[in-house]
């Protein structure tokens, strides 16, 4: 009986997907403090952030944990709760699950283009770690950002955890997008001191959900960002019950390349031809003056654009209904390959000027070119 109970209580480690690029990847976390800006959520303090840098490296060192032990302890009750995975707390050994990237591995000494990444609303950057590592293995310095006091939990040096607690009011939602734009611009300011091989003359930005809005809105405010990707995110700060409030990126468009990459919510889709989820993509489309494409992942759900796409199928305690709601019905391996290849091809095209045919016709299961 004791042995059986121990087996039930043993958390499962998961297997992260192999990198699809040709290069090994190194990684490190960094604590940044913006001495010029007070935190909008904690006005008595300067704004501080935690970021993760993934970069082409030599294959040396230990593999990085997906989540640090401190963050895993803080986040597990939230992620496992009925509001999300709906599994018993402790089901997954988040910190025992290892990324393919290696901690502090010596960098490959060449100038690499840069991509900054912003998570979904209240999302921790760690749940986009393998996507960032995969892009880094294709020859990029990738920086993922946790937006402090909004993200559900952020771990700082000294085992300090800062929790996020925001409401859905229009006023708060506007504060969130303004704060995120300032965060991304500040991180780019600091990047040369973080990684000497980052080529800040070639900069992309991407994000998922509200992070996709962040990507577009940051480009609307800062011309240093050369190309961007919005992954399944409405570009508005309307909030709960507010009047439709699209971002400046929607109203003005951009004169630089921008990719819309959408998924499904039941029978509805996020695209510029379907306004049932948001009209912001439809409003943005005619105003976009630079290169533009609208790529759709059929049968792919919203959270399938995060690391849940590969992790949820490995968590046997997640119900089939919950799994479909989180990551859709598309084959998880097909979804991963499509996401990696299309985001990689977009940045290869616009930051490395490498040609691709992926935007001429669909070449992956589930991919549909909307426009």
Automatic annotation (TrEMBL):
Q: Where is the Peptidase S9 prolyl oligopeptidase catalytic domain?
A: 180-243
Q: Which UniProt keywords apply?
A: Hydrolase, Lipid degradation, Lipid metabolism
Q: Origin, by domain of life?
A: Bacteria
SUPFAM superfamilies, per database record: alpha/beta-Hydrolases
UniProt entry tagged with the keyword Magnesium = no
Q: Which Pfam families match?
A: PAF-AH_p_II, Peptidase_S9
The record's PANTHER family line, in alphabetical order, gives:
PLATELET-ACTIVATING FACTOR ACETYLHYDROLASE
Q: What is this protein called?
A: Prolyl oligopeptidase family serine peptidase
Organism expressing this protein natively: Lentzea miocenica
